[in-house]
Amino acid sequence: MRIISGKLRGRKFTLPSGKWPVRPTTDFAKEGLFNVLVHQFDLEEMSVLELFGGTGNFSFEFVSRGCSKVTYVDKFYPCVKFVKETAESWNIGEAIQAIRMDAFQYIDKAVGSFDLIVADPPYDLPRLGQLPTLIKQSRLLKKGGWFILEHNQMHEFEQHEDCFMVKHYGKTFFSYFSFD
What we know:
27% helix; alpha/beta; 7-stranded mixed β-sheet; 7 strands
């Protein structure tokens, strides 16, 4: 995995060996997502929440592109530890708040709100289809903000009342939601 653009551009990171419950987003899909975002938002002014953060791939990319406040959430301790250690070694630890918690618990209990929420859950997650509604009910997303859900072709959100766009890059799909 690598950082595509910004102050950390070109940096590569690999997970330590061992069994990790993650499916990193491809550079191709990540680049497509960020091409959409940079034409819609000033990322330097954004507060971002990454749910099901895994490797921290999105969090690192957001910080590299100027985001000064990213909240990363994952329940797998080695992932959270990896993100914290990598952020510190790259001198960006102050920009990423890494939280070890189940994403559904975070949605239910969190206070505050974000300009942008990105969720990259396991594609076979039984409650994946509930995420747009749960995010809407939680009020975690600021007015005018976007919720972006990564998924595969087995999930369909184009008919969801709050979905305004679906993009796909190979087998990776991003559904975009706004709740205004």
